[in-house]
Design brief:
This protein has 332 residues and is α/β, with parallel strands linked by helices. 35% of the residues lie in helices and 16% in strands.
Length: 332
């Protein structure tokens, strides 16, 4: 079977090659899937895409016209593909629902700690032989209230870690596991209450119509002055211009992002020799209390191995005429 992989990065080549135990013909492309690059899938039985690839309606239709019958996602999220249209055209789609909740959860906590204790700023000072501690005052996490929007696999791990710090925990998730309240004392609340009572807010929700820009001007107005906001989920969960206004006013005291709404045009590439065209992220980078990483929360050897393994488990099942374990649309 011939499989075209889009958005391949050097850090994942070894893991994918090792997981290809059935000897499929692989074409590993650095290019993102879009209207121009879709033609590179000609002659392929299946393609494999990543978080910022574009598998919207016209591209799915073109894939079907070229005979592509399967789309494997190297991600848990699937907002990058028109699932409904893919199903109508007979294209099977499968994702990787879990690769390492610990990887993303631990990165979330790393952002919280780094922001609170001004680690990046302190490191830069020391490199310049400036050993002053002025402006580096943080706060004890112990006793602070952490609000978690989404308590699935990743959010639940964050809850356990923050419970270990002695934090009070609020959660908003219609399917919150009962043991989170029993074992960790997570109090289930509505979003307005979570926004109003939390010292730290961390987003772990999927991106859908109901959650797009869930953190906008109205939501921010409910938050404590100086709140810490963390997003390691999907960039479009927050209205970035509204967040910038809140940073300017001091309503948001700390912002940690591993995702960004317009990241597809920026992340995963070395753009150090280019002129930054995105005025929004350029403004974010001017704040001392903002820390941005380029969607690296998943980037551990454990997670990469699991992503590759599950991707080929799905592909091999489909190639063998079986329903893939994590199929989102396809064979009944």
């Amino acid at each position: 079977m011939k499989i075209v992989f889009y958005s391949i990065h050097n850090f994942e080549r070894e893991f994918l090659t090792r997981a290809n135990k059935e000897g499929h013909e692989l074409l590993l492309l650095g290019a993102r899937l879009d209207r121009q690059t879709v033609e590179l899938a000609a002659g392929a039985d299946a393609i494999c895409i990543f978080v910022n690839d574009d598998a919207s309606t016209p591209i799915v239709e073109r894939l079907a016209a070229m005979g592509v019958q399967y789309v494997a996602l190297r991600s848990a999220g699937f907002n990058q593909i028109d699932l409904k249209r893919a199903g109508e055209l007979g294209i099977s789609v499968a994702n990787v629902p879990e690769y390492s909740p610990y990887a993303v959860a631990e990165h979330t906590v790393a952002l919280i700690l780094a922001l609170n204790r001004r680690i990046a700023r302190a490191h830069n000072r020391v490199r310049e032989m400036n050993f002053s501690l002025d402006g580096l005052v943080g706060f004890d996490l112990h006793g602070k209230t952490v609000g978690l929007v989404g308590l699935g696999r990743i959010g639940a791990v964050v809850a356990r870690i923050m419970h270990g710090f002695g934090c009070k925990l609020l959660g908003h998730d219609p399917n919150m596991a009962p043991e989170l309240e029993r074992d960790l004392g997570v109090r289930s609340v509505d979003l307005p209450t979570l926004f109003a009572e939390s010292d730290i807010i961390s987003l772990h929700a999927p991106l859908m119509a109901a959650t797009r820009h869930m953190v906008g001007a109205e939501a921010i107005s409910r938050m404590k002055n100086g709140v810490m906001l963390i997003n390691t989920s999907r960039g479009a969960l927050i209205d970035t211009p509204a967040v910038i206004q809140a940073l300017k006013s001091g309503q948001i005291g700390f912002l940690g992002l591993d995702v960004y709404e317009e990241e597809a045009a920026l992340f995963f590439e070395d753009r150090s020799e280019q002129i930054l065209q995105d005025d929004v992220i350029a403004r974010l980078l001017t704040f001392q209390n903002v820390l941005i990483t380029s969607h690296q929360g998943f980037l551990t050897d454990t997670a990469l191995g699991n992503i590759a393994g599950t991707t080929f488990l799905n592909l091999n099942s489909w190639a063998g005429g079986e329903r893939a374990p994590h199929e989102l649309t396809g064979r009944a």
